[in-house]
Design brief:
Chain C: It comes from Micromonospora humi. Chain C: This is 3-hydroxyacyl-[acyl-carrier-protein] dehydratase. Chain C: InterPro entries: ApeI-like, HotDog_dom_sf. Chain C: It holds the Pfam family ApeI-like. The complex is a heterotrimer of chains A (about 160), B (about 80) and C (about 160). Chain A has 3 helices and 6 strands. Chain A is an alpha+beta fold and about 160 residues long. Chain A has a single domain, classed as Hotdog Thioesterase (Thiol Ester Dehydrase, Chain A, Roll). Chain A has a 6-stranded antiparallel sheet. In chain A, strand 4 and strand 5 form a beta hairpin. Chain B is mostly helical. Chain B has one domain: Orthogonal Bundle (Non-ribosomal Peptide Synthetase Peptidyl Carrier Protein, Chain A), CATH 1.10.1200.10. Helix content of chain B is about 60%, strand content about 0%. In chain B, helix 1 crosses helix 3. The longest helix of chain B has 17 residues. Chain B starts with a helix and ends with a helix. The two termini of chain C are about 20 Å apart. Chain C has one domain: Hotdog Thioesterase (Thiol Ester Dehydrase, Chain A), CATH 3.10.129.10. Chain C is about 15% helix and about 35% strand. Chain C is mainly beta and about 160 residues long. Chain C has a 6-stranded antiparallel sheet, with helices on one face. The relative contact order of chain C is 0.22. The chains are: A alpha+beta (about 160), B mainly alpha (about 80), C mainly beta (about 160). Chains in contact: A-B, A-C, B-C. Chains A and C meet through helix 2 and strand 3 of A and helix 2 and strand 3 of C. Strand 3 of chain A pairs antiparallel with strand 3 of chain C, so a sheet runs across the interface.
């Protein structure tokens, strides 16, 4: 199954410029997904760079690369969830993520995501990101939950204090 | 090493990895929340790793029970059919 | 090849750090640096969640939530300001050993990062361990990561 951008917008609550997935080339719900993100020099992450910086400074931010992979994992998970479970997917933990090579404007990233487990409303995904034949990142474990908006903005005096 | 000891050591390693401790620092009866500052997400992570490692399904209702290594072992033994 | 590991040199402001490399947002308002054990340093840095930031308007339109990856961005910019460049290159996030996001940061919330950094290894990498706290004292994240000044043109030889 293939998902175009309109279908991703229907699934993910993220919007410009934080919707960091352009297309899903192939997905087996609940199992695996290949997602595509084309990096462009037009993205706002390039707007603040001072003139005259060397070429390496245009490397795509690791934070956005990780988010983009995470959105692929979220799509994979949301497709296998029952309808009517509204809320925002929240990235809650990551373990052993390796950033191997820089990505630059013009590169097309392919995220290969596997859904490892869904336990008690939490999803665990793993996989890797590629530009052509080169692996640019590896993800050993990414964990996410879906939280209702009410739960995110809950009154703070009632929140359990972490020790 | 008895089956029980073997299982206990495997579980100790899983718990230590999730709580970011050394296995020898995880005491058998220490409460994860009280003594190791674990939060509910870590409990879910421990459960997820156990389910994956032992190919068992543990109902989420048991999460509340799984507060120490010894308690985790008892719960897993019940669902994995260990004769420990 | 240099024989001695490079030293930390806190020589940049957060604004300079933002202007020197691609970044989704200026993710640090202030940084303080102090000497740490074994040649390492400790840093404190902070920012306030601005709902008008262009990326945050998309995360999410119905409710501003500072994404977990932006906490990583705050940490990267704080580390860069605190350790400086090496051979003209800023440090990059090389390996995220563990990141854990515990509580949400919403519009107007302040985020304070406290991190121990280094010492620097021979391969120009250094460990960073960070605790992140919200204005009301609630811990929002813990992060363990390896940063590295690139040795060659962005290829780690794998």
């Amino acid at each position: 199954m293939r998902l175009e951008h309109a279908a991703l917008r229907a699934l993910l609550p993220h919007r410009y410029p934080m919707l960091l997935l352009d297309r899903v080339e192939d997905v087996t719900p609940g199992e695996s997904l290949t997602g595509v993100k084309a990096v462009s020099g037009c993205e706002p992450c390039y707007r603040g760079i001072a003139e005259g910086q060397p070429a390496d400074r245009y490397a795509y931010p690791a934070s956005l690369l990780i988010e983009s992979f995470g959105q692929g994992a979220a799509v994979l998970w949301l497709l296998s969830r029952r309808a009517g479970t509204a809320g925002l997917p929240m990235f809650t933990a990551a373990r052993d993520v390796a950033l191997l090579r820089p990505v630059h404007p013009g590169d097309v990233i392919r995220h290969r995501v596997r859904l490892e487990q869904v336990v008690d409303g939490a999803a665990f995904a793993s996989g890797s990101s590629w530009v052509g034949e080169r692996r640019v990142a590896e993800f050993d474990s990414m964990m996410a939950v879906v939280r209702a908006v009410d739960a995110i903005v809950e009154p703070r005096d009632e929140r359990e204090e972490p020790r | 090493m008895s089956e029980r000891d073997k299982h206990l050591e495997q579980l100790r390693e899983i718990v230590a990895e999730v709580l970011e401790m050394e296995p020898e620092e995880v005491a058998d009866t220490a409460d994860f929340v009280e003594e190791y500052e674990a939060d509910s997400l870590r409990a879910i992570e421990i459960l997820a790793r156990i389910e994956k490692t032992y190919k068992v399904e543990i109902p989420q209702a048991e999460l509340n029970e799984m507060r120490s290594l010894k308690a985790v072992h008892e719960v897993v033994a019940r669902y994995a059919g260990w004769q420990d | 090849m240099t024989v001695a590991a490079p030293a930390f040199a806190p020589d940049r402001t957060p604004a300079q750090t933002y202007a020197e490399a691609a970044a989704p947002l200026p993710a640090v308002a202030w940084v303080e640096v102090a000497a740490g054990p074994r040649g390492g340093i400790t840093l404190r840095a902070g920012t306030t969640v601005d709902p008008d930031d262009v990326y945050l308007t998309g995360h999410f339109p119905e409710l501003t939530v500072y994404p977990g990856v932006f906490t990583l961005e705050t940490l990267r910019q704080a580390v860069t300001a605190a350790v400086g460049h090496c051979a003209g290159r800023p440090p990059e996030l090389h390996r995220l050993r563990s990141a854990r996001f515990l509580a949400p940061l919403l519009a107007g919330d302040t985020l304070t990062v406290e991190a121990s950094v280094g010492p620097v290894a021979q391969d120009q990498s250094f460990e960073v361990t960070a605790r992140c706290v919200r204005g009301d004292g609630v811990r929002t994240a813990t992060v363990r990561a390896v940063f590295r000044w690139p040795v060659e043109d962005g290829d780690d030889g794998r």
